[in-house]
Amino acid sequence: MTDSSWAVADCELFGVDNLPYGSFVRGDGVPHVGVRVGQKVLDLTSAYRALDPSRAGLFAGGTLDLLLAAGRPTWTAVRSQIVSWLTDETHRPAIEPLLVGLDEVVPRLPFTVADYVDFYASECHATNVGRIFRPDGEPLTPNWKHLPIGYHGRSGTVVVSGTEVRRPVGQYRGDDGSIEFGPSGRLDLEAEVAFVLGTRSTRPVPVAGAARHIFGLCLLNDWSARDIQAWEYVPLGPFLGKSFATSVSAWITPMDALAAARVPPPPRDPAPLPYLDDGAQQWGFDIDIEVLLNGQVISRPPFATMYWTAAQMLAHLTVNGASILPGDVFASGTVSGSARGQRGSLLELTWNGTDPIALAHSTSRTFLEDGDEVVLTATAPSVGGGRISLGEVRGRIVSAES
Hints:
The protein is an alpha+beta fold. Helix content is 16%, strand content 28%. It has eight helices and 26 strands. It is globular and about 70 Å long. 47% of the residues are buried.
Protein backbone atom coordinates (compact mmCIF):
# COMPACT_ATOMS: atom_id res chain seq x y z
CA MET A 1 0.00 0.00 0.00
CA THR A 2 1.14 3.58 -0.53
CA ASP A 3 0.29 7.02 0.70
CA SER A 4 -0.08 8.25 -2.91
CA SER A 5 -3.62 9.61 -3.03
CA TRP A 6 -5.54 12.48 -4.54
CA ALA A 7 -7.34 12.81 -1.19
CA VAL A 8 -4.39 13.50 1.10
CA ALA A 9 -0.89 14.93 0.91
CA ASP A 10 2.09 12.58 0.92
CA CYS A 11 3.67 11.60 4.27
CA GLU A 12 0.49 12.35 6.20
CA LEU A 13 0.24 10.58 9.54
CA PHE A 14 -3.36 9.90 8.54
CA GLY A 15 -2.78 8.86 4.93
CA VAL A 16 -4.17 5.84 3.12
CA ASP A 17 -1.69 3.59 4.91
CA ASN A 18 -3.63 4.35 8.08
CA LEU A 19 -7.39 4.98 7.60
CA PRO A 20 -8.61 4.64 11.18
CA TYR A 21 -12.37 4.18 11.68
CA GLY A 22 -14.62 6.29 13.86
CA SER A 23 -18.16 7.59 14.39
CA PHE A 24 -19.21 11.22 14.22
CA VAL A 25 -22.13 13.62 14.07
CA ARG A 26 -22.56 16.95 12.31
CA GLY A 27 -25.18 19.66 12.69
CA ASP A 28 -28.15 17.34 12.26
CA GLY A 29 -27.00 15.08 15.11
CA VAL A 30 -27.31 11.91 13.00
CA PRO A 31 -24.40 9.49 13.62
CA HIS A 32 -22.26 8.40 10.68
CA VAL A 33 -19.29 6.07 10.34
CA GLY A 34 -16.14 7.54 8.82
CA VAL A 35 -12.46 7.02 8.21
CA ARG A 36 -9.98 9.76 8.91
CA VAL A 37 -7.97 10.92 5.88
CA GLY A 38 -5.51 13.69 6.72
CA GLN A 39 -7.52 16.56 8.16
CA LYS A 40 -10.75 15.22 6.69
CA VAL A 41 -13.19 12.40 7.34
CA LEU A 42 -14.68 10.24 4.58
CA ASP A 43 -18.35 9.69 5.38
CA LEU A 44 -18.65 5.92 4.90
CA THR A 45 -22.35 5.82 5.77
CA SER A 46 -23.11 8.08 2.80
CA ALA A 47 -20.42 6.60 0.53
CA TYR A 48 -21.65 3.03 0.84
CA ARG A 49 -25.27 4.07 0.46
CA ALA A 50 -24.37 5.72 -2.86
CA LEU A 51 -21.63 3.48 -4.24
CA ASP A 52 -22.09 0.00 -2.79
CA PRO A 53 -25.59 -0.61 -1.39
CA SER A 54 -24.73 -4.29 -0.79
CA ARG A 55 -22.52 -3.21 2.13
CA ALA A 56 -24.41 -0.09 3.15
CA GLY A 57 -26.05 -1.88 6.06
CA LEU A 58 -22.68 -2.25 7.77
CA PHE A 59 -22.56 1.52 8.30
CA ALA A 60 -26.21 2.55 8.38
CA GLY A 61 -26.39 2.63 12.18
CA GLY A 62 -23.62 5.17 12.50
CA THR A 63 -21.37 2.93 14.64
CA LEU A 64 -18.79 0.23 13.94
CA ASP A 65 -20.93 -2.43 15.62
CA LEU A 66 -22.03 -4.30 12.49
CA LEU A 67 -18.64 -4.00 10.80
CA LEU A 68 -16.97 -5.51 13.87
CA ALA A 69 -19.40 -8.43 13.79
CA ALA A 70 -18.83 -9.07 10.07
CA GLY A 71 -15.40 -10.67 10.50
CA ARG A 72 -11.96 -10.44 8.96
CA PRO A 73 -12.75 -11.22 5.30
CA THR A 74 -15.21 -8.30 5.30
CA TRP A 75 -12.76 -6.03 7.19
CA THR A 76 -10.11 -6.74 4.53
CA ALA A 77 -12.48 -6.22 1.61
CA VAL A 78 -13.88 -2.96 3.00
CA ARG A 79 -10.42 -1.53 3.64
CA SER A 80 -9.28 -2.44 0.12
CA GLN A 81 -12.37 -0.78 -1.34
CA ILE A 82 -11.84 2.42 0.67
CA VAL A 83 -8.20 2.60 -0.45
CA SER A 84 -9.35 2.28 -4.07
CA TRP A 85 -11.89 5.07 -3.61
CA LEU A 86 -9.22 7.37 -2.21
CA THR A 87 -6.42 6.61 -4.69
CA ASP A 88 -8.14 6.00 -8.03
CA GLU A 89 -8.94 9.26 -9.83
CA THR A 90 -12.01 7.69 -11.43
CA HIS A 91 -13.70 7.65 -7.99
CA ARG A 92 -12.84 11.25 -7.20
CA PRO A 93 -16.07 12.90 -8.45
CA ALA A 94 -18.20 10.64 -6.23
CA ILE A 95 -15.93 10.55 -3.17
CA GLU A 96 -14.64 14.11 -2.92
CA PRO A 97 -18.00 15.64 -1.90
CA LEU A 98 -18.19 13.08 0.94
CA LEU A 99 -14.94 14.25 2.55
CA VAL A 100 -15.83 16.40 5.56
CA GLY A 101 -13.44 18.69 7.39
CA LEU A 102 -12.24 17.29 10.72
CA ASP A 103 -13.28 20.54 12.38
CA GLU A 104 -16.86 20.07 11.14
CA VAL A 105 -17.50 16.80 12.97
CA VAL A 106 -18.02 15.83 16.61
CA PRO A 107 -16.52 12.41 17.40
CA ARG A 108 -18.61 9.81 19.23
CA LEU A 109 -17.70 6.56 20.96
CA PRO A 110 -17.05 4.50 17.80
CA PHE A 111 -18.78 1.28 18.89
CA THR A 112 -20.88 -0.17 21.68
CA VAL A 113 -18.47 -1.47 24.31
CA ALA A 114 -19.71 -4.97 25.08
CA ASP A 115 -17.20 -5.85 27.78
CA TYR A 116 -13.91 -4.48 29.10
CA VAL A 117 -10.86 -6.19 30.60
CA ASP A 118 -7.64 -4.48 31.63
CA PHE A 119 -4.36 -6.37 31.86
CA TYR A 120 -1.03 -5.72 33.60
CA ALA A 121 1.36 -6.67 30.82
CA SER A 122 4.38 -4.36 31.26
CA GLU A 123 7.20 -5.91 33.28
CA CYS A 124 8.72 -2.48 33.87
CA HIS A 125 5.43 -1.11 35.22
CA ALA A 126 4.72 -4.15 37.39
CA THR A 127 8.28 -4.04 38.75
CA ASN A 128 8.04 -0.34 39.57
CA VAL A 129 4.72 -0.81 41.36
CA GLY A 130 6.13 -3.76 43.31
CA ARG A 131 9.17 -1.76 44.40
CA ILE A 132 6.95 1.14 45.50
CA PHE A 133 4.55 -0.95 47.59
CA ARG A 134 6.79 -3.91 48.55
CA PRO A 135 10.24 -2.30 48.94
CA ASP A 136 11.54 -5.17 51.07
CA GLY A 137 10.09 -7.99 48.96
CA GLU A 138 10.14 -9.33 45.44
CA PRO A 139 8.75 -6.67 43.07
CA LEU A 140 6.84 -9.18 40.92
CA THR A 141 4.19 -11.47 42.37
CA PRO A 142 4.92 -15.23 41.95
CA ASN A 143 2.34 -15.62 39.17
CA TRP A 144 3.30 -12.57 37.08
CA LYS A 145 5.60 -14.31 34.56
CA HIS A 146 3.30 -17.32 34.23
CA LEU A 147 0.09 -15.62 33.08
CA PRO A 148 -1.24 -12.26 31.91
CA ILE A 149 -2.85 -10.77 35.03
CA GLY A 150 -6.02 -8.75 34.44
CA TYR A 151 -9.16 -7.38 36.03
CA HIS A 152 -12.71 -7.13 34.75
CA GLY A 153 -13.56 -3.45 34.21
CA ARG A 154 -16.78 -1.52 33.70
CA SER A 155 -17.86 -1.10 30.07
CA GLY A 156 -20.53 1.50 30.88
CA THR A 157 -17.98 4.15 31.86
CA VAL A 158 -15.73 3.84 28.80
CA VAL A 159 -15.90 7.30 27.21
CA VAL A 160 -14.59 8.88 24.02
CA SER A 161 -11.62 11.22 23.93
CA GLY A 162 -12.53 14.78 24.92
CA THR A 163 -15.03 13.76 27.58
CA GLU A 164 -14.38 15.53 30.89
CA VAL A 165 -13.41 13.28 33.80
CA ARG A 166 -15.03 14.10 37.13
CA ARG A 167 -12.84 13.50 40.15
CA PRO A 168 -14.21 10.38 41.87
CA VAL A 169 -15.21 10.13 45.52
CA GLY A 170 -14.88 7.10 47.74
CA GLN A 171 -13.35 5.62 50.85
CA TYR A 172 -9.64 5.85 51.53
CA ARG A 173 -7.25 5.57 54.44
CA GLY A 174 -5.88 8.89 55.72
CA ASP A 175 -2.24 9.50 56.58
CA ASP A 176 -3.07 8.88 60.26
CA GLY A 177 -4.78 5.58 59.47
CA SER A 178 -8.32 6.90 59.82
CA ILE A 179 -10.94 5.83 57.27
CA GLU A 180 -12.22 8.82 55.35
CA PHE A 181 -14.71 9.54 52.58
CA GLY A 182 -14.44 12.24 49.95
CA PRO A 183 -12.88 13.24 46.63
CA SER A 184 -9.76 11.31 45.64
CA GLY A 185 -6.56 13.24 46.34
CA ARG A 186 -4.34 10.89 44.34
CA LEU A 187 -5.90 10.83 40.89
CA ASP A 188 -3.63 9.31 38.26
CA LEU A 189 -3.38 8.59 34.55
CA GLU A 190 -2.35 5.33 32.89
CA ALA A 191 -1.07 5.29 29.31
CA GLU A 192 -2.31 2.12 27.63
CA VAL A 193 -3.09 0.48 24.29
CA ALA A 194 -6.48 -1.20 23.86
CA PHE A 195 -7.52 -3.93 21.41
CA VAL A 196 -11.03 -3.98 19.92
CA LEU A 197 -12.59 -7.37 19.17
CA GLY A 198 -14.90 -8.27 16.33
CA THR A 199 -15.95 -11.81 15.52
CA ARG A 200 -17.69 -13.49 18.45
CA SER A 201 -16.51 -16.79 19.90
CA THR A 202 -17.75 -19.17 22.57
CA ARG A 203 -14.60 -21.25 22.37
CA PRO A 204 -11.04 -20.55 23.57
CA VAL A 205 -9.10 -18.46 21.04
CA PRO A 206 -5.56 -19.80 20.54
CA VAL A 207 -2.70 -17.36 20.00
CA ALA A 208 -2.65 -18.42 16.34
CA GLY A 209 -6.31 -17.38 15.99
CA ALA A 210 -6.03 -13.88 17.40
CA ALA A 211 -6.04 -12.21 13.97
CA ARG A 212 -9.53 -13.56 13.25
CA HIS A 213 -10.92 -11.67 16.23
CA ILE A 214 -8.86 -8.50 16.79
CA PHE A 215 -10.23 -5.75 14.57
CA GLY A 216 -7.87 -2.97 15.59
CA LEU A 217 -6.38 -0.99 18.42
CA CYS A 218 -6.55 2.43 19.99
CA LEU A 219 -5.07 4.44 22.83
CA LEU A 220 -6.66 4.21 26.27
CA ASN A 221 -6.28 6.14 29.53
CA ASP A 222 -7.21 4.01 32.52
CA TRP A 223 -7.79 6.83 35.03
CA SER A 224 -7.00 5.60 38.54
CA ALA A 225 -7.79 6.93 42.02
CA ARG A 226 -4.76 5.56 43.85
CA ASP A 227 -5.99 6.28 47.36
CA ILE A 228 -9.37 4.63 46.80
CA GLN A 229 -7.70 1.74 44.97
CA ALA A 230 -5.14 1.12 47.73
CA TRP A 231 -7.84 0.79 50.41
CA GLU A 232 -10.27 -1.39 48.46
CA TYR A 233 -8.20 -3.75 46.35
CA VAL A 234 -7.11 -6.21 49.04
CA PRO A 235 -8.10 -9.05 48.82
CA LEU A 236 -9.93 -8.55 45.49
CA GLY A 237 -9.07 -6.39 42.49
CA PRO A 238 -9.62 -2.74 41.50
CA PHE A 239 -13.21 -1.51 41.80
CA LEU A 240 -14.24 2.11 42.54
CA GLY A 241 -10.66 3.28 42.08
CA LYS A 242 -10.96 2.46 38.37
CA SER A 243 -14.62 2.24 37.36
CA PHE A 244 -15.49 5.96 37.26
CA ALA A 245 -14.00 6.59 33.77
CA THR A 246 -11.85 5.00 31.07
CA SER A 247 -11.06 7.17 28.04
CA VAL A 248 -10.44 5.80 24.53
CA SER A 249 -9.46 7.52 21.32
CA ALA A 250 -12.11 8.40 18.77
CA TRP A 251 -10.31 6.56 15.95
CA ILE A 252 -9.68 2.80 15.81
CA THR A 253 -6.60 1.83 13.80
CA PRO A 254 -7.22 -1.43 11.89
CA MET A 255 -4.71 -4.22 12.34
CA ASP A 256 -3.90 -4.19 8.61
CA ALA A 257 -2.46 -0.67 9.03
CA LEU A 258 0.03 -1.99 11.61
CA ALA A 259 1.69 -4.74 9.58
CA ALA A 260 5.02 -2.86 9.54
CA ALA A 261 4.85 -2.16 13.27
CA ARG A 262 4.98 -5.80 14.35
CA VAL A 263 8.01 -6.84 16.39
CA PRO A 264 8.90 -9.95 18.40
CA PRO A 265 8.17 -9.78 22.12
CA PRO A 266 11.03 -9.65 24.63
CA PRO A 267 12.55 -12.93 25.86
CA ARG A 268 10.43 -14.79 28.43
CA ASP A 269 11.84 -16.68 31.38
CA PRO A 270 10.32 -19.08 32.24
CA ALA A 271 8.86 -20.15 28.93
CA PRO A 272 5.06 -19.71 28.89
CA LEU A 273 2.78 -22.74 29.05
CA PRO A 274 1.79 -24.19 25.66
CA TYR A 275 -1.53 -22.32 25.39
CA LEU A 276 0.40 -19.03 25.78
CA ASP A 277 3.30 -19.97 23.48
CA ASP A 278 3.45 -17.24 20.83
CA GLY A 279 6.92 -18.11 19.54
CA ALA A 280 5.62 -18.54 15.98
CA GLN A 281 3.64 -15.30 16.15
CA GLN A 282 4.80 -11.69 16.05
CA TRP A 283 2.30 -9.85 18.21
CA GLY A 284 4.55 -7.20 19.69
CA PHE A 285 4.11 -3.68 18.28
CA ASP A 286 6.62 -0.88 17.84
CA ILE A 287 4.39 1.94 19.10
CA ASP A 288 5.86 5.14 20.55
CA ILE A 289 3.52 6.84 23.03
CA GLU A 290 3.73 10.38 24.37
CA VAL A 291 2.05 11.54 27.57
CA LEU A 292 1.31 15.26 27.81
CA LEU A 293 0.18 17.01 30.99
CA ASN A 294 -1.13 20.53 30.40
CA GLY A 295 0.62 20.58 27.03
CA GLN A 296 4.01 19.41 28.31
CA VAL A 297 5.48 16.02 27.42
CA ILE A 298 6.18 14.20 30.67
CA SER A 299 6.80 10.67 29.39
CA ARG A 300 7.44 8.61 26.26
CA PRO A 301 6.48 4.97 27.02
CA PRO A 302 7.59 2.33 24.45
CA PHE A 303 4.97 -0.33 23.74
CA ALA A 304 7.55 -2.67 22.14
CA THR A 305 8.82 -3.57 25.62
CA MET A 306 5.53 -5.18 26.73
CA TYR A 307 6.10 -8.66 28.19
CA TRP A 308 2.69 -10.15 27.36
CA THR A 309 1.24 -9.71 23.85
CA ALA A 310 -2.32 -9.14 22.67
CA ALA A 311 -2.53 -12.71 21.33
CA GLN A 312 -1.52 -14.10 24.73
CA MET A 313 -3.95 -11.83 26.56
CA LEU A 314 -6.81 -12.97 24.33
CA ALA A 315 -5.81 -16.62 24.69
CA HIS A 316 -5.75 -16.32 28.46
CA LEU A 317 -8.99 -14.34 28.59
CA THR A 318 -10.85 -17.11 26.74
CA VAL A 319 -9.05 -20.30 27.84
CA ASN A 320 -11.56 -21.03 30.61
CA GLY A 321 -14.49 -20.89 28.18
CA ALA A 322 -15.30 -17.18 28.55
CA SER A 323 -17.02 -15.93 25.41
CA ILE A 324 -16.10 -12.82 23.43
CA LEU A 325 -18.47 -10.50 21.57
CA PRO A 326 -18.10 -7.82 18.92
CA GLY A 327 -17.21 -4.63 20.77
CA ASP A 328 -15.29 -6.33 23.56
CA VAL A 329 -12.21 -4.35 24.56
CA PHE A 330 -9.12 -5.49 26.40
CA ALA A 331 -6.28 -3.17 27.33
CA SER A 332 -2.58 -3.70 27.92
CA GLY A 333 -2.28 -2.11 31.31
CA THR A 334 0.11 0.78 31.90
CA VAL A 335 2.90 0.95 29.32
CA SER A 336 6.27 1.73 30.91
CA GLY A 337 9.89 1.43 29.87
CA SER A 338 13.05 1.06 31.93
CA ALA A 339 13.95 4.76 32.12
CA ARG A 340 12.17 7.32 34.31
CA GLY A 341 11.09 9.31 31.24
CA GLN A 342 9.34 6.18 29.91
CA ARG A 343 7.01 5.56 32.84
CA GLY A 344 3.31 5.58 31.92
CA SER A 345 1.74 6.75 35.19
CA LEU A 346 2.25 9.48 37.77
CA LEU A 347 2.48 6.79 40.42
CA GLU A 348 5.78 5.74 38.83
CA LEU A 349 6.94 9.13 37.56
CA THR A 350 6.69 10.66 41.05
CA TRP A 351 7.44 7.42 42.93
CA ASN A 352 4.08 7.50 44.72
CA GLY A 353 4.23 11.25 45.26
CA THR A 354 7.67 11.38 46.89
CA ASP A 355 9.45 12.91 43.87
CA PRO A 356 7.25 15.51 42.10
CA ILE A 357 7.67 16.16 38.39
CA ALA A 358 8.49 19.72 37.35
CA LEU A 359 6.13 21.50 34.97
CA ALA A 360 6.17 24.87 33.27
CA HIS A 361 5.80 28.16 35.17
CA SER A 362 7.56 26.77 38.27
CA THR A 363 4.73 24.32 38.96
CA SER A 364 4.95 20.64 39.79
CA ARG A 365 2.71 17.61 40.22
CA THR A 366 2.56 14.46 42.25
CA PHE A 367 -0.98 13.53 41.14
CA LEU A 368 -3.62 15.24 38.98
CA GLU A 369 -5.32 18.45 40.06
CA ASP A 370 -8.67 19.84 38.96
CA GLY A 371 -8.31 21.58 35.59
CA ASP A 372 -5.37 19.43 34.48
CA GLU A 373 -5.60 18.06 30.95
CA VAL A 374 -3.93 14.80 29.97
CA VAL A 375 -3.35 13.90 26.31
CA LEU A 376 -1.97 10.59 25.06
CA THR A 377 -0.67 10.40 21.49
CA ALA A 378 1.23 7.68 19.61
CA THR A 379 2.81 6.79 16.29
CA ALA A 380 3.91 3.53 14.67
CA PRO A 381 5.83 2.52 11.52
CA SER A 382 3.77 2.60 8.34
CA VAL A 383 3.62 -0.03 5.63
CA GLY A 384 4.55 2.79 3.24
CA GLY A 385 7.83 3.46 5.01
CA GLY A 386 6.89 6.49 7.12
CA ARG A 387 4.80 6.62 10.27
CA ILE A 388 1.13 6.60 11.08
CA SER A 389 -0.65 8.24 14.00
CA LEU A 390 -2.85 6.41 16.48
CA GLY A 391 -4.67 9.66 17.21
CA GLU A 392 -5.06 10.93 20.74
CA VAL A 393 -6.90 10.42 24.00
CA ARG A 394 -7.71 13.71 25.69
CA GLY A 395 -9.34 14.25 29.08
CA ARG A 396 -9.62 17.19 31.48
CA ILE A 397 -10.16 16.72 35.20
CA VAL A 398 -13.13 18.56 36.72
CA SER A 399 -13.93 18.78 40.40
CA ALA A 400 -16.11 16.22 42.15
CA GLU A 401 -18.72 18.93 42.75
CA SER A 402 -18.97 20.11 39.12
